[in-house]
TrEMBL record:
Record-given protein name: glutaryl-CoA dehydrogenase (ETF)
Pathway given in the UniProt record: Amino-acid metabolism; tryptophan metabolism; Amino-acid metabolism; lysine degradation
Family recorded in the similarity comment: Belongs to the acyl-CoA dehydrogenase family.
SUPFAM superfamilies: Acyl-CoA dehydrogenase C-terminal domain-like, Acyl-CoA dehydrogenase NM domain-like
Entry keyword Oxidoreductase: yes
Keyword Oxidoreductase tagged: yes
Length: 387
């Protein structure tokens, strides 16, 4: 039997029936609802918010959180497959789900009170409340400890001042999980859209993640009640714990983008006739296609094992760094090679490689640049922090 070109090692045979069902369901959603519109959304710089209710109906928001909060209660591998299939459509769609699930719902679940969980999580799972995650600052970048946003106690409330940058979902969010310096270390706060002094400004002129909302957040003497503080964590381990959850999903997402690019390059090279024969019949193109398949296969196996480790409670942040570094690099290289195989046609958004290549410029940068993840692995090997 011929091997599947996008699953040479039959990775699907390693998945449970539930995991297969999740992947197939999200794949259909991507094929039927995302792919027909996403090229136009990218061209227009528009996030397709009309898809949010459908994503919620499928259980894609907060999918790994318990069913008692209106979530699907899926395992880590299933969440990874969700990210993979969504990013096969577009990184912006996966980014929306990642932020909602891992950066907003997860901290409320992990660091919040039971009242906060009951108040926010069911509506967030249903897509009725959208969240964003406020950690990165204009001067901070890869150094989140260099945080200027601050919160001071004022009676029963907190007063927040500062700014956050490169915030996915910022202008469509109903709440922001904002991290701020306090006299007792970094703490997290649920800042609601209507709070006086809180505003979001959408970032325009992007050449990447154009089908995603990216914003700057501004906090000018924003009064936040004590019941909106996340009480069960202090210090950088709070936001970094959220980032580990999100980075795990990001390790899977680029596999989907890479598969989409390989699919288009393979089909195009078979159809395009040059010098009297298909481009796919040349050694140069076959070498490129084979290398794409090799790298996708390696990434798939890496992620399945990472997911199994996560489900077993054994996953370490360094393992996530290794996978994000490997898989983002894999995907961006494949997108560029696929664009090259398509020739001049590859520069238009009628084909997906240039869109994925541009999006992956952000994915390889956010939530830890490639260099940061390389240094995390280097620190693990040597025991020396080179930051």
């Amino acid at each position: 039997m011929a091997l599947h070109p996008y699953d040479l090692y039959d990775v699907r045979s390693l998945l449970s029936e539930e995991e297969l069902a999740v992947q197939d369901t999200v794949a259909r959603f991507t094929d039927e609802r995302v792919l027909p519109i996403i090229g136009d959304c990218f061209d227009e710089g528009r996030f397709p918010s009309e898809l949010i209710p459908e994503m919620a109906e499928l259980g894609l928001l907060g999918s790994s959180l318990p069913e008692e909060y209106g979530c699907a209660g899926l395992n880590a591998v299933s969440y990874g497959l969700i990210c993979q299939e969504l990013e096969r459509g577009d990184s912006g769609i996966r980014s929306f789900a990642s932020v909602q699930s891992s950066l907003c719902m997860y901290p409320i679940f992990a660091y919040g009170t039971e009242d906060q969980r009951k108040r926010w999580l069911p509506d967030m799972a249903a897509g009725k409340v959208i969240g964003c995650f406020g950690l990165t600052e204009p001067q901070g970048g890869s150094d989140p400890a260099n945080m200027k946003t601050n919160a001071r106690k004022d009676g029963a409330d907190w007063i927040l001042n500062g700014a956050k940058m490169w915030i996915t979902n910022g202008n469509v969010a109903d709440i922001a999980i904002v991290w701020a310096q306090t006299d007792d270390g970094i703490q997290g706060f649920i800042v609601e859209k209507g709070f006086s002094g809180f505003s979001a400004q959408e970032i325009k002129h992007k050449m990447s993640l154009r089908a995603s909302v990216t914003s700057a957040l501004y906090l000018d003497d924003v009064r936040v009640p004590e019941e909106n503080r996340l009480p069960n964590v202090k210090g950088l381990k709070g936001p970094l714990g959220c980032l580990t959850q999100a980075r795990y999903g990001i390790t899977w997402g680029p596999i989907g983008a890479a598969i989409a690019c390989l699919d288009e390059a393979l089909n195009y090279s078979k159809e395009r006739i040059l010098f009297g024969k298909p481009v796919a019949s040349t050694q140069a193109v076959q070498l490129k296609l084979a290398d794409m398949a090799r790298r996708i296969t390696s990434a798939q196996l890496l992620c399945v094992q990472l997911g199994r480790l996560k489900d077993a409670g054994k996953m370490q942040p360094t393992q996530v760094s290794l996978a994000k570094w490997n898989n983002c690099r894999m995907a961006i290289d494949i997108a560029r090679e696929a664009r090259d195989i398509l020739g001049g046609a590859g520069i238009t958004t009628e084909h997906c490689p240039i869109r994925h290549a541009l999006n992956l410029e952000s994915v390889i940068t956010y939530e830890g640049t490639e260099t940061v993840h390389q240094l995390v692995v280097g620190r693990e090997l040597t025991g020396i922090n080179a930051f």
